[in-house]
Write a structure and sequence with these properties.
- The protein is an alpha/beta fold.
- Helices cover 39% and strands 16% of the residues.
- The strands form two sheets. It has a six-stranded mixed beta sheet, with helices on both faces.
- α6 links the parallel β2 and β3.
- α1 packs antiparallel against α3, α1 packs antiparallel against α4 and α1 packs across α6.
- The relative contact order is 0.13.
Length: 341
């Protein structure tokens, strides 16, 4: 398919996906996905689907693919395996779209935690654009017969396994990363409400959801606690509430000081990864100290959210509202895909 044909087909699919969201015809599949994984609430699934629709808008696709005139050249498609994770609904969506847009075939290994939505969307896409039918496959068991791989690791031993097993293939292997926010104490109520979106979207489980805060010495958390109250409904989710009860009890038992946000807690701690319902924080006394701390965790950081003048920082409220060209871990997926030999 030419670049223009790809854009036309994907944008038409996007319009049908928006229509399915509007008329409620996705309700059953959303319900199934939620029952399979209670962490993936209907609100979070609908948010992920809304972002998918945005990615499929003609203007988004044209801007994304404009730097790649080579997509109009006849090429022998490669089969690219994609190992997805299930931290958030449709976590591997952009890899799926990227492989297809590059003119290659995608072989998907789904996560047990998110194995409902993407197969349904793939069927919708094929009904809209039958030319993609031979370009999409799902691996039931072990991956085989592929030319390149994009692997999203859950961490631990999977990191070493992926590095060793897939070393002989062209690959992108992503290790877990997490996101941080930097505040200076001058944030408006609107900015703090937007930061709450960055913290609690996907219940904080996505790689771009903020789990660590950097605040100036003596920071008053009161305004942030107030701004975050719009997410108190998370307590209606038994899994979330159980996490909060457990971690709050553990902190109290060990006499660890924490800021009680009612439905979440903040504790001073070093890691940038934090459990569900918990945000870690660290303090800084100067911009030089802050820069040093950010530099020390750069390899673990997916994005930095801030209203301050920090290189590469994402505005409050935008952490999980990525574009197609916002590639995970800064590795240009499309460059990788179109240059496969």
């Amino acid at each position: 398919m030419s670049r223009n044909d790809t854009i036309k087909a994907l944008s038409e699919f996007g319009r049908k996906l928006q229509g399915a969201l509007d008329d409620g015809s996705l309700a059953a599949i959303i319900d199934t996905a939620t029952h399979h994984n209670p962490w993936h609430t209907p609100a979070n699934i609908e948010f992920a689907l809304g972002r998918a629709v945005h990615h499929l808008e003609t203007a988004s696709l044209e801007q994304w693919l404009a730097p790649y005139p080579a997509l109009d050249e006849l090429r022998v498609p490669k089969t690219v395996a994609v190992i997805m994770n299930g931290d958030a609904p449709l976590a591997g969506w952009k890899d799926f779209v990227s492989v297809l847009a590059s003119g290659n075939r995608v072989l998907i290994k789904l996560s047990d935690g998110d194995d409902t939505l993407l197969p349904h969307l793939a069927k919708m896409l094929v009904r809209t654009a039958p030319e993609f039918e031979d370009y999409i496959a799902f691996a039931e068991n072990r991956l085989h017969r592929f030319d390149a791989i994009i692997a999203n690791s859950d961490g631990g031993s999977a990191n070493r396994y992926y590095e060793q097993y897939f070393a002989k293939y062209p690959h992108i292997i992503r290790h877990p990363r997490h996101s941080v926010a930097v505040l200076d104490g001058n944030e408006t109520a609107r900015q703090l409400e937007a930061l709450a979106d960055d913290i609690f979207t996907y219940m904080g489980m996505g790689s771009r959801s903020v789990g660590k805060l950097f605040v100036p010495d003596g920071y008053d958390f009161g305004a942030l606690v107030k701004a975050a109250r719009k997410y108190r409904h998370l307590m209606d989710n038994n899994h979330y509430k159980s996490n909060l009860d457990y971690h709050k009890a553990l902190l109290m038992l060990n006499a660890v000081p924490f800021v009680d946000g009612d439905f979440w807690v903040m504790k001073e701690d070093i890691p940038i990864a934090s459990p569900v319902s918990v945000a870690n924080y660290g303090t800084y006394a100067s911009h030089a100290e802050l820069n040093d701390k950010l530099a020390a965790i750069a390899d673990e950081t997916e994005c930095v959210v801030s209203g301050m003048d920090i290189a590469g920082a994402v505005p409050f409220g935008k952490a999980n509202k990525t574009e197609l060209w916002d590639y995970p871990q800064g590795v240009n997926t499309m460059d990788f895909l179109i240059n496969l030999k």
